[in-house]
Amino acid sequence: MAVTFAQLVDRTKQQLLGYTKDQASVSYLTADATATDTTLTVDPETATNLSRGLVEIDDEMILVKKFDRTTGTVTVMAGLNGRGADGTTATTHLTNALVTNDPRFPRARIKEAINDTILGLYPDLWVFAQTEFPYIAARYEYPVPADADDVYKVVVNTIGPSGVWFPAQSWRFNPMASTTSGQVKPTPTPTGKSVQIYDRIVPGRNVRVSYTKGPTVLSNNSDDFATITGFPERYVDMVTYGAAWRLLPSYEAGRLQQASIESTERAPLVPTSAASQASQFFLALYSKRLNEERTRLQRLYDSYQTFNG
Fold first, then answer.
1. Under a CB-based contact definition with an 8 Å cutoff, are residues 73 and 46 in contact?
2. Phi, psi (5° rounding) for residue 298?
3. Which domain holds residue 97?
4. CA distance linking residue 251 with residue 255, whole number of Å
5. How far is CA 253 from CA 250, 261, 276, in A?
6. Under 8 Å CB-to-CB from 53, ≥6 apart: which residues?
7. Gap between the Cα atoms of 37 and 90, Å rounded
8. pLDDT (tens digit per residue) in 107-144
9. Residues facing residue 14 across a β-bridge
10. pLDDT digits (tens, 9 = 90+) for 257-295
11. Rounded to an integer, what distance in angstroms lies between the CA atom of residue 304 and that of residue 126?
């Protein structure tokens, strides 16, 4: 079953807030909103769930100046300056979009933590890609794509109907190849990366280079995790643990100054460093899964490389 970016955000949020639903103060839009609207219309019956300050609609944070409980009209603080608060982007929102008052973990921050975790998996875990080209007589160096960080193996198509690809024995990855041509190097490598092949190969036979690269981050809610990142779907739980580990320490910052009666009363019930300890718990889960997948990856994919120096 494919896991989208939006589903990954929901899974991470559930880990952060627990399986007992957080009773957030929520309303919803009763009319579409554009990216430049400074007044929004919400359900009058639930408008009182909102208050002056931050609200979240989809992935956007908005500063609210006031609301009218009779009409459901919400006025944005400081005009357009109140749209796209806290580094989020002002965008359009459709009718029935949920409006959440002061969310504990904004979706924009959760998405950032998820993408930070995906990027942090590399180079311990990598994505495979391939490029193929015909072998040319008297030419030893061939360009590889710019996203190649290392060459994993090189195979060559045999002569005849067998269709077997045999491993090249002598090759070297050059991550700093020349991008210009001249008398010494008449053929440039436009990507600045190349593979040098020293085997005796029949000209015209295809050479297939398998290389490793970093993952691609997610951007749209509908993005499929495996398709976009290049990682297998079984990494989803590991990414969830990693995102939770990154987000939970923010709870400790809220304890530095007990500014409200509620937080002061809760302080003895939720001891100091509780969030940090929970963060370390998720870090342990993340690290365990990372080690498991790193060992698995190395066992599943043997390299044919015998020369790389």
1. no
2. -70, -30
3. 23-103
4. 7
5. 5, 17, 10
6. 63, 64, 101, 102
7. 9
8. 999 999 999 999 999 999 999 999 999 999 989 999 99
9. none
10. 555 555 555 555 556 677 888 999 999 999 999 999 999
11. 17
Bond prior to 123 in cis (omega within 30° of 0): yes
Q: 1 and 119 in one domain?
A: yes
Are 144 and 193 in contact, with CB atoms under 8 Å apart? yes
Residue-by-residue DSSP string for 158-185: PSSTT--EEEPSSEEEETT---S--SS-
| 185 and 99 within one domain | no
CA dihedral in degrees (103, 105, 109, 112; nearest 10)?
A: -150
41 & 165 share domain: no
Query: What does the block give as tokens for 157?
Result: 């198509």
Alpha-helical segments (H) within 24-150 = 107-120
Partners of 130 in the β-ladder: 210
Of the residues 54, 69, 103, the one at which a domain ends: 103
* Residues 148 and 268 reside in one and the same domain: no
The DSSP code for 42 is: B
Q: Which helix (H) or strand (E) holds 239?
A: helix 236-247
CB atoms within 10 A of CB 127: 18
DSSP letter for each residue of 253-291: HTTSS--SHHHHHHTTTS-TTHHHHHHHHHHHHHHHHHH
Which residue in the block uniquely carries the two structure tokens 């009773």? 23
Rg (CA), the chain: 27
Q: Are residues 5 and 49 located together in one domain of the fold?
A: no
Taking residue 161's Cβ as centre, other Cβ atoms within 10 Å add up to 6
Predicted confidence at residue 307, as pLDDT, reads 39
Total-model pTM? 0.89
